Amino acid sequence: MRRALGSVRAKAAAGATVVVALALIATGVAVLLVLRGHLQSQAGLQAEVQARNVAGQIATGTAFDKLDLPDGEDRPVVVTGDDGRVLAVGEDVRAVEGKRVGKGKAAEGSPTDRSDRGDDDADDDGGRRLGPGEIDDDVSLRNGSADVGGKVADYRFASVEAKDSRGTSVTVRAGSALAPEEDAVASVRDAMLIGLPLLLVVVAGVTWLVTRRALRPVEGIRGEMAAITASTDLSRRVPVPSSQDEVGRLARTTNETLAALELSVERQRRFVADASHELRSPIASLRTQLEVAVAHPELLDVPGAVADTVRLQRLAADLLLLARLDAGERPTDARVDLAAMVREETSQRLADRVPVRIAELAGGDVAGSRGQLARVLGNLLDNAQRHAAEWVRVSVVREGEWLALRVEDDGPGVPPDERERIFERFVRLDDARARDDGGAGLGLAIARDVAVRHGGSLAVRTGSVFELRLPAAG
Q: Alpha-carbon Rg of the chain, whole angstroms?
């Protein structure tokens, strides 16, 4: 139960329900306020029409006892004079706002002057006095209660001042019942109170179902990932839905991650296996020589033992550098002069089997680690000298924003279909270019890794030309 309540489906359904509930409540309140205001305005308009109708009769000289007053409990009318006495009253009207009224009697609290008008609608006429037979243009609107036929109800009252043909000032107060307004508002409110919970249930249910359908592929991805974790079988892939939405992109990205992880694990496995194989040969050779030396000291091959030790040392250094590169070690931001580095490195190879010639050396700096870049140049020179017949040539050229270091030899070259494979770890070709004086097949792999981490590239441009491209500094 707790898991279900904490699921994405439950959270989405609850969130949608809360948002819709708040929106519906706000909308319902606004509708009720607008409806109440509109109905109250209509009641006020009806009351004003009734008051002006009676005031018109008085202004035209109709006697108070001859006035045509509306009948019924929905439209009470009271006519009062300046002294507050009731001059005319509708049938069955007994009291207004708790004050009893009767023809010929004073009505306490009857609005007979400007001060009693409602603040919401009364306007000051600037002191203009009405003449005989005139009706004031202003109207005072306010809510109140009245007792009509023994039944007390709420009304919207309109008060209008007028003068009859003899100049007698009167105030006509007519009311329009608010019961229809209250009934209409109550009906709408009750409908909302009934419909709102039902609508919220529908919204929650629809959101739950839609979210469940949308997240079904995610559950499939989660289940497959759990199975992959339990089985450690990285060749498996999560199901990819046919939709092109976020879930589909998640599944495709997950499969790409699994493929990269599988490749990395496989590469690591091969690396460990190849490293173990490469280490086994010099260790076994060195052990054999030492065992022979123990039994027959005169047969000890000291140069061979030294060569095996040097080979082990170089292999260990290569493995350590590869481990640091795989761990994400970034080069420094020092500036390196490629031309100066080439002169210094080649000056230490004067006694090599194959001489190294220096061709064009364009000036320019690159950003990075001088030690690692020197290691790249040394590996390229070792590779070239291993396969060259008579010469090796080095050059540095400027190509726009790039510096290209090229190492070329007069050897047979690398076949086109092998020009990428030679940069894999522990790969040595079996053709004429594969003459090996003990290399483990790590030099070119290290060189490319260093080039990439310096923002450049290393590739075979022609059969025997290796080109290192690096971005020029500054």
A: 51
Same domain, 140 and 32: yes
CATH number at residue 276: 1.10.287
> Could you give the residue ranges of the DSSP H alpha helices within 421-461?
443-453
Tokens of 246: 């976020």
Residue 264 is part of which domain span?
Answer: 246-325
Q: What's residue 105's pLDDT?
A: 53
144: nearest Cα among 109, 171, 168: 109
Rounded to whole angstroms, the Cα distance separating 61 from 56 reads: 9
CATH of the domain at 339: 3.30.565.10
Let me know the angle formed at the C-alpha of 187 by 185 and 191, rounded to the nearest 5 degrees: 115
Partnered with residue 315 across adjacent β-strands are none
Boundary (domain end) residue, out of 233, 257, 278: 233
Burial (CB < 10 A; 0-12, 13-18, 19+), residue 85, is: middle
| Bridge partners for 146 per DSSP | 96, 153
The secondary element (H helix, E strand) that includes residue 354 is none
Q: Kindly state whether residues 391 and 411 are assigned to the same domain.
A: yes
The closest alpha carbon to 170, from 145, 142, 136, belongs to: 136
Number of domains in the chain: 3
195 plus 162 within the same structural domain: yes
Nearest to residue 431, comparing CAs of 446, 409, 415?
415
Would you call 229 exposed, middle or buried from its count of C-beta atoms within 10 A (0-12, 13-18, 19+)?
Answer: exposed
Q: Tokens at residue 118, please?
A: 């409602």
320 and 337 belong to one structural domain:
no
State which H helix or E strand residue 240 sits in.
Answer: none
CA distance 434 to 427: 10
DSSP annotation of 178 reads S
Q: How far apart are CA 87 and CA 78, in angstroms?
A: 8
Domain presence at residue 241: no
Given 3-state DSSP classes, what are the helix, strand and coil percentages for the chain, each rounded to the nearest 5? 50, 20, 30
pLDDT tens-digit readout, 412-466: 888 888 888 888 887 776 543 443 454 667 889 889 999 999 999 999 988 789 9
Is the pTM above the cut of 0.85? no
* Together in a domain, 129 and 47: yes
